[in-house]
Write a sequence for this structure.
């Protein structure tokens, strides 16, 4: 169907679409309803990777023992998405497709080196998460392609997720960070760190990761991070706040400091 | 707002056709008109099969209906409420195949083949209507206040209890955090859910209908509940000890609690009249613009459209919407008011000012018609900031400029002086100056404004959520220029208001003129966004203080220069209250109510006080800190002892409130000199106190006794959520010396009830309650003289007392003590302990009183830390009109609040009751802000105290406090 009419906007839980409609910001006018494609809702291990169907809801992620065991930071991120009502309806595929720089699960997927599985009539292609977003609300998804799932290779190391919103729940993030920290070796430690709400898209911070790997002091790594990201002032926060808090979250993560 | 956009209704209209597992759905704005036309005469429909509350049904649904719409408008299951219509508030929560979802965000066609459960399906036994355990727990714990969010809370709770039979408080908060409650009764909701799961059955702080000890504290075992929700203590003050009564003073569930937990309570939006039309309002997209031309011809041509009104064909003045001086509106004020507000204004003066309204056969057609109205605007220069608006070169919103005139139409600020301010500063050893600002915060009551107007000949019946049916009636009559007896105002249930449902509203007038024009009843329901920008919130302020003080902490002079942003119409006073709670011989207050091109400001719970108290009590906390004094000692030295240092209070309990708070909170141990401790998490303690004078005004009551022994108590109250109905019934039962079960309350209908001043200014209990007491006395006298009525006989007694305070001032008193944790790395503030001590005289109903105090304090935390309405400074457009943007507290944000009542009896109010409703919001904001200061050692001068501001403050050069700070 998407092949015949590639400009259709796929929809499932509609938790973001509705808001866009309400604010009059939505330009699309034709939609494709996916909600009943149950086979896209599976969470399973496939060839060593955690495979999550695009229609898996946040509730599915929270409840999945597989997710909780292999990627607890994804369950943590899902728990921070709105209230139970939104968690029951919002999907991981929708979070990815909506391409918001503030999407709660996206830093988790970025840090975990997830792969986005796209399907169209001609077949399937897999896009590394790091290459999926090309700009603000822009992705490499071609017209006629559908996000059918997310694959996450095994993750080794300590996981971290923290969303900072205005209030404790039901908030759009001011900043959100996910990270995976490998075991310390003599010279440093491997780290994968991704942030939301600090750039037009969710971003990985390779220079910061390299600094961590090189064994630099935490202060030096924090400085690298603050230089590496380019947040902006908007409704929810200031660039200055985001920069400082990114650095503070990094310290909490790396030093395993108290309250997250 | 003419944007070329697809409206959600059109989206829904299109997406509904997606029924197959994968379906293509389409919506084309270009064919909207034809579609809507079709709708009026029967739009595309789909037959679905759905099980609703266990009953299998086959329904033909319009493809664009939401599930909420199907339930409410077509299956008449109106227990499910619409609070935001965009998945932010939870009032519409239903269970879909057992899982809670927002029914406003589901299309009706999507539930084909599925099972839906609503609040109406919760009763355990439909035949005898026995409540389920969770409903009963909600009743017992006074979980619903206004009740508008209750159905949603219940459904979320039901889902939780199905998967977790014995939830903890934390489980409950997580499961219900998608359900907002602006009465902020989160503690009681959580406690009820935990109790329903059996966890705290033995820990009920308040037995549902038990006698509380008349004096002394509750037994210690009763105070800590397993759910972690602190409870309530009531203490009687020795000199004014209250004596135990039979009915009053016992914790009693609301007399209408069952209606509120079963979905049976009918709110304005739930009422449907035969032939009723639906209205929608087109609002200005510009902050200031002249309307050059309005073309409604295309909209009029749309089939199903029955009436359209604009400023061209509707000249109705909305009197209460623009008042010289901003005080109570009346005939005299009407004559003099210069800057009048009409139902439709030209020029429009803020984004959201009504431009046109449509009535049509259904809500979709009405909305489609709005899109077809063509308006040409000439944008005018605008100003958003009150200080900027007073500059000579500022754009003028009214020809006389932007300082709003007083009740004599003089361009003068509000001014109050006592003593000699210059002499006061001359006597001072230190003079401190500072500037504080507070934000516009919206009342954000869960029920958006609604009105249903119906004309029968020349008689208007209007169903509307109003805090004062009597005032609403006189306002409507005055605006429509008809006699008051030609207007019947009905409000049986309403979903909160907190001051923005006082008087009549433009929504009432718009529905009324449309109904007249169309010759049919018209219902208007504002969207959440419209309610946020079109209905008023608290006025934002800028406050400059200058305080003179002696070395020993004695105040010698207090000066305040303030600016209040009123929006373009003066609805209320705009004053900034608070400095009178300090004993000081020399005061000088000048406050400028200023017109701006923002959403209109007006009354919101303690209208001028939470913002004024934030200013003055932050200022005084700062003075205490500079003098290296414990703020409690400073307060005790300088707090009011007589009203304005002159007039005695009817009784005075402030010392006692502070003493008890210090003890309960363990202030002396917990408080430390302001400043940052080491480590990222910083603890701090703050205090604030209050003296609050309620509004006055005469009220009447009528009691009718029949031969069956039923006492019908007629009072002109509504019930905003504070529990006025129950309070009146308890007072009546006590005064008549009969059981509560003998009382039938007649309320909320001006044709059936005598005048009452209305639920504003925290005065219902003391004013209308006193009328009930007096009427009961008269009835008892009649019974003594004539005997009980027999057969068709009735006895009728009435009273309209004019209570005298013997030249004294009646104030409620209180003090709040707050402990916070500030995260110095992320900027967050967490309230970890909150103790409120209040003297509200005798507590008529401890159960609802506890809800009131907790709600006000919780709202205060929101105002201190989160709430704001942000504007795009370039366009003048509000950017955060909704629950997400306004950031009111959620279940997960709301801390447990501990309440201690100091009972007293001044012998004046009904059984010694004083006012309560607004008082707990008044000191809350300042107490939280002062606790943040104590934690970080940096004064936060601008509300809300967001994470960003805290980090800025901590990292600003020289931020660390130098005087008395800890490092």
């Amino acid at each position: 169907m998407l092949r015949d009419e590639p400009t259709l906007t796929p929809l499932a839980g509609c938790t973001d679409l509705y808001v866009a409609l309400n604010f009059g910001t939505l330009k699309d006018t034709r939609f494709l309803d996916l909600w009943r494609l149950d086979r896209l809702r599976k969470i399973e291990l496939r060839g060593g990777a955690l495979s999550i169907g695009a229609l898996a809801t946040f509730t599915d992620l929270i409840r999945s023992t597989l997710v909780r065991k292999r990627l607890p930071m994804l369950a943590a991120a899902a728990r921070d998405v709105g209230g139970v009502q939104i968690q029951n309806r919002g999907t991981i595929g929708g979070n990815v497709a909506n391409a918001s720089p503030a999407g709660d699960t996206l830093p988790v997927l970025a840090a975990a080196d997830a792969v986005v599985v796209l399907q169209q009539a001609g077949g399937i292609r897999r896009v590394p998460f790091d290459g999926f977003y090309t700009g603000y609300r822009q992705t490499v998804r071609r017209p006629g392609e559908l996000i059918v799932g997310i694959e996450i290779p095994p993750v080794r190391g300590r996981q971290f997720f923290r969303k900072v919103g205005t209030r404790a729940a039901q908030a759009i993030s001011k900043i959100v960070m996910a990270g995976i920290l490998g075991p310390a070796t003599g010279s440093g430690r491997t780290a994968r760190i991704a942030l939301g709400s600090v750039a037009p898209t969710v971003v990985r911070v390779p220079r910061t990761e390299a600094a961590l790997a090189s064994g630099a002091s935490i202060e030096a790594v924090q400085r690298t991070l603050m230089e590496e990201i380019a947040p902006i002032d908007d409704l929810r926060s200031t660039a200055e706040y985001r920069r400082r808090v990114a650095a503070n979250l990094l310290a909490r993560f790396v030093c395993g400091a108290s309250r997250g | 707002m003419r944007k070329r956009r697809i409206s959600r209704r059109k989206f829904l209209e299109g997406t509904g056709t997606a029924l197959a597992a994968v379906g293509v759905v389409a919506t084309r704005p270009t064919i909207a008109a034809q579609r809507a036309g079709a709708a009026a005469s029967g739009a595309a429909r789909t037959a679905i099969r759905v099980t609703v509350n266990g009953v299998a049904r086959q329904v033909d649904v319009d493809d664009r209906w939401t599930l909420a719409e199907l339930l409410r408008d077509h299956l008449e299951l109106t227990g499910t409420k619409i609070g935001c219509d965009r998945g932010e508030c939870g009032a519409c929560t239903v269970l879909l195949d057992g899982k809670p979802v927002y029914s406003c965000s589901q299309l009706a066609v999507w539930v084909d083949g599925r099972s839906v459960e609503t609040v109406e399906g919760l009763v355990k036994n439909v035949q005898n209507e026995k409540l389920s355990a969770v409903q009963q727990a909600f009743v017992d714990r006074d979980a619903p206040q206004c009740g508008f969010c209750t159905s949603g809370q219940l459904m979320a709770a039901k889902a939780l209890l199905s998967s977790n039979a014995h939830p903890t408080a934390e489980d409950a908060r997580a499961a219900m955090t998608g359900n907002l409650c602006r009465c902020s009764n989160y503690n009681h909701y959580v406690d009820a859910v935990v109790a329903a799961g059996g966890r705290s059955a033995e820990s009920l702080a308040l037995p549902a209908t038990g006698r509380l000890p008349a004096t002394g504290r509750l037994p210690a075992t009763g105070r800590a509940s397993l759910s972690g929700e602190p409870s309530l203590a009531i203490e009687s003050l020795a000199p004014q000890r209250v004596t135990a009564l039979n009915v009053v003073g016992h914790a009693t569930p609301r007399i209408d609690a069952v209606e509120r937990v079963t979905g049976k309570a009918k709110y304005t939006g739930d009422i449907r009249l035969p032939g009723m039309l639906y209205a929608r309002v087109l609002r200005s997209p510009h902050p200031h613009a002249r309307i050059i031309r309005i073309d409604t011809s295309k909209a009029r041509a749309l089939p199903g459209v029955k009436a359209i009104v604009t400023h061209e064909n509707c000249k109705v003045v909305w009197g209460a919407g623009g008042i010289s001086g901003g005080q109570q509106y009346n005939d005299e004020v009407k004559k003099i008011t210069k800057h009048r507000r009409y139902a439709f204004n030209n020029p429009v003066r803020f984004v959201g000012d009504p431009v046109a309204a449509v009535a049509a056969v259904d809500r979709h057609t009405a909305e489609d018609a709005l899109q077809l109205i063509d308006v040409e605007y000439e944008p005018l220069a605008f100003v958003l900031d009150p200080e900027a608006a007073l500059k000579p070169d500022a754009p003028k919103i009214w020809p006389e400029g932007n300082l709003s005139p007083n009740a004599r139409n003089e361009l003068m600020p509000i001014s109050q002086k006592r003593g000699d301010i210059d002499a006061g500063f001359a006597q001072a050893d230190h003079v401190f100056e500072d500037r504080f600002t507070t934000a516009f915060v919206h009342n954000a009551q869960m029920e958006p404004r609604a009105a249903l107007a119906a004309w029968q000949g020349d008689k208007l019946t209007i169903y509307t959520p109003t805090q004062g049916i009597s005032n609403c009636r006189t306002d409507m009559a005055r605006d429509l220029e008809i006699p008051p007896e030609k207007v019947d105002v009905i409000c049986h249930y309403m979903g909160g208001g907190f001051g923005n449902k006082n008087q009549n509203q433009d929504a009432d007038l718009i529905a009324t003129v449309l109904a007249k024009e169309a010759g049919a009843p018209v219902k208007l329901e504002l969207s959440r966004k419209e309610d946020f920008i079109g209905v008023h919130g608290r006025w934002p302020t800028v406050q400059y203080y200058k305080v003179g003080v002696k070395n020993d902490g004695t105040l010698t002079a207090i000066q305040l220069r303030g600016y209040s942003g009123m929006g373009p119409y003066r609805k209320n006073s705009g004053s900034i209250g608070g400095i009178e709670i300090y004993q000081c011989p020399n005061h000088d207050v000048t406050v400028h109510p200023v017109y701006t091109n923002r959403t209109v400001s007006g009354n919101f719970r303690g209208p001028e006080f939470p913002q004024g108290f934030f200013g003055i009590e932050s200022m005084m906390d700062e003075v205490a800190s500079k003098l290296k004094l414990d703020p409690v000692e400073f307060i005790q030295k300088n707090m009011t002892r007589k009203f304005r240092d002159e007039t005695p209070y009817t009784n005075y309990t402030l010392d006692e409130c502070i003493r008890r708070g210090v003890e309960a909170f363990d202030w002396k141990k917990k408080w430390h000199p302001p400043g940052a401790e080491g480590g990222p998490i910083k603890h701090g303690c703050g205090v604030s106190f209050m003296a609050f004078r309620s509004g006055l005004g005469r009220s009447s009551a009528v009691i009718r006794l029949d031969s069956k022994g039923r006492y019908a108590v007629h009072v002109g109250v509504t019930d905003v959520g504070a529990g006025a109905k129950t309070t009146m019934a308890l007072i009546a039962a006590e005064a008549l010396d009969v059981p509560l079960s003998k009382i039938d309350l007649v309320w909320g209908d001006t044709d059936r009830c005598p005048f009452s001043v209305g639920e504003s200014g925290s005065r219902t209990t003391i004013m209308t309650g006193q009328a009930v007491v007096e009427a009961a006395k008269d009835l008892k006298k009649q019974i003594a003289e004539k005997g009980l009525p027999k057969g068709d006989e009735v006895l009728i007694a009435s009273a309209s007392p004019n209570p005298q305070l013997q030249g004294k001032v009646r104030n409620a008193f209180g003090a709040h003590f707050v402990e916070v944790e500030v995260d110095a790395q992320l900027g967050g503030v967490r309230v970890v302990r909150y103790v409120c001590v209040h003297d509200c005289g005798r507590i008529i109903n401890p159960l609802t009183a506890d809800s009131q105090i907790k709600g006000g304090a919780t709202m205060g935390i929101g105002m201190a830390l989160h709430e704001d309405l942000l504007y795009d400074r370039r366009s003048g457009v509000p950017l955060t009109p909704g629950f997400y943007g306004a950031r009111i507290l959620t279940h997960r944000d709301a801390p447990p609040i501990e309440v201690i009542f100091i009972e007293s009896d001044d012998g004046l109010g009904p059984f010694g009751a004083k006012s309560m409703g607004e008082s707990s919001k008044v000191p809350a904001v300042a107490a939280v802000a002062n606790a943040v200061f104590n934690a970080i050692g940096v004064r936060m001068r601008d509300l809300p105290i967001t994470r960003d501001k805290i980090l800025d403050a901590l990292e600003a050069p020289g931020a660390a406090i130098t005087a008395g700070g800890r490092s």
Summary: Chain B touches chain A through 70 residues (CB under 8 Å).
